Amino acid sequence: MDRSFKRQYAIMKKLEEQMTTVMTSIRLPRLTWDKIEEYLDIHYPDHANSFNAPPFWIRELSTSMWAEEEECGEWQDVKKKGKKKETVDSSVSRTLYGFWRACKDLQFLQPPAPATPARDVTLSKQPDATRAYLLQHPDTFFASLGFEGMTPPLPQTNRPLSILNTNSNVWAMSAPERMRLGDDWEQKIRTNAYTTQLTHYNSLREEYREACKDYEDMKDENRRRLLSQTDLIACTTTGAASLTSLLGSVAPQVLLVEEAGQVLEAHILASLVSSVRHLICIGDPQQLRPTLATFALSMDSARGRELFMFDRSLMERLVDNGYQMSQLNVQRRMRPSISHFIRTILYPKLEDNAVVAEYPPVQGVESDVFFLNHLNKEGGSDDSVSKYNMFEVEMIRDLVMYFLRQGTYSGPGDIAVLCAYLGQLQKVRAALRDLKIAVAVDERDAEELARQGLDEDVEFAEVVVAKHVRLGTVDIFQGQEAKIVIVSLVRNSGQCDTGSGSIGFLKSSNRINVALSRAKHGLYILGNAANLRTNTTWSTILDEMESRNQVGPGFPIVAPRELRDCITSPIPANVYSTANTSAGSPAQTSTNAISTVKSLVVSNARTTAARNLALKPVPPVWNRVSGLALISLVLFCAARSAHACRVMNHASRSSHADTVVHPTCVLCLEQDRKSDIVDFIMQRRLDEVDLESTDVSDRLVTLACGHIFTVETLDGHCGMSEYYDIDVMGRFISMKSPPVKYQTPPTCPTCRGPITALRYGRVTKRATLDILEQNVASTMSSDLDACNPAVTEFNTTLPRMQDLAKGMTIHPIVDDENATHPRRVLEPENGPLPAKALDILAMQTFHGLSIDEAREWGKVIGNFITTYRRIIRVANTRGAHVKAYESALSTLFRLEMEAIAKDPARATDTPEPHALMVVDRKIGQPRPKADVRYQIEAYFLSLELRSLIAQVAESRIDALSISTNDPDLLRHRTLWTSFVGFLFRSCMTDAEKAQTMASNSSATRQEARAALLCIRFAFELFRWDVKCKRTELLRSGGYTGSEREKLSHEVIKYKNTLLTALERLENAYIRKRPSKTMDDLKDERAWLYKNCRRKVETWVEECNALNEFIVKGGFYQPLSLQEREDIVKAFGFCKCYELSAIWHRGHFYNCENGHTFVITECGGAMEASRCPECNAPIGGSHHQLLSSNTRATEFEAVAMRHGSAESPWVWARGA
């Protein structure tokens, strides 16, 4: 069967590939010259001949232009958003058709250049310069070909398409005609491709559909064979509806629906197959109905109850129509005082099993059932899902804590809190989480909270898992139970008048039934009795509660009998309370009452501690619930501590026996179990396996779920060959390094239950750690994604931050003996610079600022520091999988080193590498790397933020005068200068850490980016030091020619250092990413150029600008791309100024010293002048620029990106 599956699957994949090939030919995403030429040869042979045999000057012109592009690079047209997509492959541009389509011959002829004498091209000894000159002067070009004075005219015709298809002289067509004819040809090629290939594609699609059907039939047959051997098939109604054909072939005769009262009737009807003779619905139509997305179609809606009733289950409809129903009348969950209310309103025949009468009373509370009546108004909007009641939230919080401290209800799931509204659910969860109690929310409620926007991030690092409280809505809790149930009804008008407020869907008897029937030992409800009495069901329940003294304004908290016996003196009662002792005297909440209670508790604890053999005195335990003095069980606590110790010891002794899975005796199994398939490879049944065989592969393994399989089957299913070396006989020889890919936990092939057999422990542990690693990585990724927009916004608001820094007040500095120099700040060995090194305290303590100035600085960069803390938290994240791996590695390495030391035969001069190699095979898990990627990205973000903070700090320094001799101002400048240097040095250190992390995790691209950041911040620190040296020399009057030359030499030397560092980076990157093909190598080098070389080249240009600043003076401030764009737009040299007469390129030039100037109008020089910066000659005459001037390509590039067209004038060509 397995071979048949593979054969059919291969047929499907082959058909998929054929369909993809045909679809590509139909769509033709980009036409190639071969397709175009084939079409023209068939339909327009004369036009094809014109492309194959063009005029002589066309061929020469195209050859020269292509050669020029090969040497100087080809111009790329930047397409604006929304433009038409490219329909022709890029390779077509180097064909005569592409040359014709792009109208390059017409561009060469237009506009007409001024008359220029023919140049004798034979005088030039530089063919490249000659070609460039000829391409700029059409007359000279034609003269060089022997056609002097015979320049062809520029076509200006605009003929219709019908004439163009008959005229084969394509080179005499104008640009609009070429565009029209080319579009027509390409559209016809696509139409023909679609027509000719569509039939073929349809036939392939039919074959593929049949192949898929055969494949599914084979799967269904395999399923049918498996299901036909089973007595019980379990599935959801959705699964049954989707597999009706499969179930029909199995022909089940009985359909049993569990929780039928909560299943839509349509779902049950869709699951019925023709063979079913008996339908059994198990459920309770008196409890919650199925859930509908549209309220108007449900029974709770007046119109829906009359017309639709879509949420009425089949079971409820049959009962309503008088269909006979059997009922279980004995309940085994609720104590009699709780089941009494359900019996009163819905189930008059309900009986209690004897076991519920033996439940112990709820510890610490006088009544097992109680309704707390209050008049605290609800909150929230009119939206039915967002209502909440903060009074009930606080009461629930304190009541839960009180119950947990009793000790009896501290087990997982012992206490459940049910909320009527999602808004209340969110508030209660937040309140309980603050108390560090593990709160389990049903996953369906969690999804609903997320949809309503009420979900919050939860950190579980400090949560006490032993105190486990379940939290959910009433609807979700159906079918579940807990010892103590606290119900928050939420709705409260704040008034005691009956009918003064709406109770919403609390009036539903189904929800009332669920809410009151979940508790086993104790039920406690919070709400407004007056509002609830508007409903008949609630009125009946409240009447019964009042008759049993179970309604009041406070919970009846009581002390245990042991404590009541020791309280002999009465406690003054000056505050209302319902907490009372055995003598009936109420406890107080005032200070003296609490002191009295505490003293009594402490004295009793001391006397009972020895009696109960507790190891130490039990501390006084008391709490406050809504102003009521609560006395905890001191005697009980001591006794419970001793008892718990005994129980824990007993549990630790017996825990191993409880987890052992006893093997199933194959000989004693029933006959039908022996027909189970246990060998999936040979399809052998259990009774066909030789139990006396000595072959290990025939041995049987019984899983925890009870299913039995052969060792060979489970070994193949779990992929044991990927974890162990196996010889030709199938025997395991030794362990080997596990697979690198993420693994999923192995499951039982039959029921998908977990495989816990020790034989597969290595596989299971590896998969479990992989899941942990993926969860941590996912969390880190989402945290970083949340920080990225903030960093982007900081880049936008940087000028405003710099202005605020410039406007800061200069505060006097007070010497602090405890102050630490910033260079002595302790930086962590692992992890980036902590946020505490940049906060207000650090600015005062480490960096030497006054407290007032540090606070003012904190206001300027407060948002920076907040985001920085979040990023550092991600960078320092270490998941549980990392800790587990490191613990295992260190332990195994220690044991292996001890084994080598004890065994003389294994003695070696280098035991560490050998031990590590052995440990790598034993540990069964590669070093976790998924989270390292996000840690490195967090490093990068932290470096970016520190760079922005440094720019803001530089603005602060710029606002401080350098000409002053005021010692306080000079000290201010020194401190801020030191702070900027500290930031750049910390960035260098952390960039090196990130590079090391990336290298250890084999993330070569991240390693290259980190190395680039090392280069960047080393350059930033160097540039900052040079600027500071120059400023200090200027201030002291020592900026002489020799000092200037010295600084210039340093800058030139460092420029060479940048290029050397770039070369090392590129060589290391290429060496660590070997390429299989030349295309791969080109892609890698393209990535290097885009992400590394271009940036380093920019820093080299900055070195040149810095050197000019040192040598010639002036103002040095590197221009950003945004500033260059603003300059270009201000002059109107871009297409966004469509009303301007000037929007072509060719206006920006540099003097011989690199200072940029602008020539307006046509961009040609008409007069000479002097550079205002360095007095160097600029301009020219008669549209001829001085030879010492050059074009400012960085500004021209900006103009081109913003839509500026190429200049029509010869002197501006190439701009």
From TrEMBL:
Keyword Cytoplasm on entry: yes
Question: Among its keywords, does the record have Zinc-finger?
Answer: yes
- Any one biological process term the GO annotation gives: regulatory ncRNA-mediated heterochromatin formation
Where can this protein be found?
Cytoplasm
Q: Which GO terms describe its cellular component?
A: cytoplasm; nuclear RNA-directed RNA polymerase complex
Q: Name one Pfam family in it.
A: AAA_12
Where the record annotates domain RZ-type, the positions are: 1119-1201
PROSITE patterns hit by this protein: ZF_RZ
| Keyword line | Cytoplasm, Immunity, Metal-binding, Zinc, Zinc-finger
Gene3D superfamilies per record: P-loop containing nucleotide triphosphate hydrolases
Which molecular function terms from Gene Ontology are attached?
Answer: helicase activity; zinc ion binding
Xref: PANTHER family: DNA2/NAM7 HELICASE FAMILY, NFX1-TYPE ZINC FINGER-CONTAINING PROTEIN 1
How is this protein named in the record? RZ-type domain-containing protein
**Originating species:** Trametes cubensis
